[in-house]
Amino acid sequence: MELSRALPPLLRSLLSEYKRLVKVYPDTPNIARRMFVTNAMDGLLAAIGVNVGGFSVDVDPRVLALSIMGGALSMGLLSAVVGVYLSERAERLNEVKRLEKKVGRSLRGSLYWRAAMLVPIYIALWSGVGVLVFPALTATPYLAASAGILGMGEAFALSLASALALMATLGYYLGVVSGESRLLYTLRGLALGAGGAVVVYLFKSLLQLSPIA
Where are the chain's structural domains? Predict the structure, then answer.
C-alpha cells in the first residue's frame, strides 16, 4: 500500500496539492531545506553565544533559558518566518507577473498563482522550524536547573554540548545532501559551533579585563 493511501483524506489532499505545486516550482524542496539548515545553524550559534556569554555560577537559569528562547522567537517569527515568507512571495509573484506578460492574460486563480501564494508559506514554515526547535532543545537543561534537577554547571555543560552535537548533526545532514564526506561535514559543523563559542569566550574575557570608567 502506498503511504499516501494510508493518510487521512485531508492530509492526502494536502499532499496531492503539494505535489502539483512542486511541479510548478521544482526548486521548492531544495529552498526549504536550505532555509531550514541555515536558520537552524543561526539559532544554534545564537544559543551558543548566550551560553558562553551569559553564563556564571550565580546567574538565574531561567534568565539563560529565556534569553535563548527569546532570541529564537524573535529570529524565528520575525526573520525566519515572516521575512522569508515576504521575500519568497515577492520572488514568486514577480515570476507570475512576467509570465502574465508573456501570455497576455491574468493568471489569478491558476495553478501558477496558487503556487506563488502557497509555496512561500511552506518554505517559511520549514525555516521557522529550524530556528525555533533546535535552540529550544539547548534551553531544556536550564529549565531542569530552574526546577532543581540539575546544577548550573551541569546545565551549562549539557546545553553547550547539545548545541555542538546539533551543529555536528546538521553538518552530517549536509554531507548526506552533498554526497561528499559525511565525516568531513560533521567536523565542519562541529568546528563552526566550537569556533562561535571560542569567539564569544574571547570577547567576554576581553570585556572582563577592560577597565570600567
Answer: 28-164
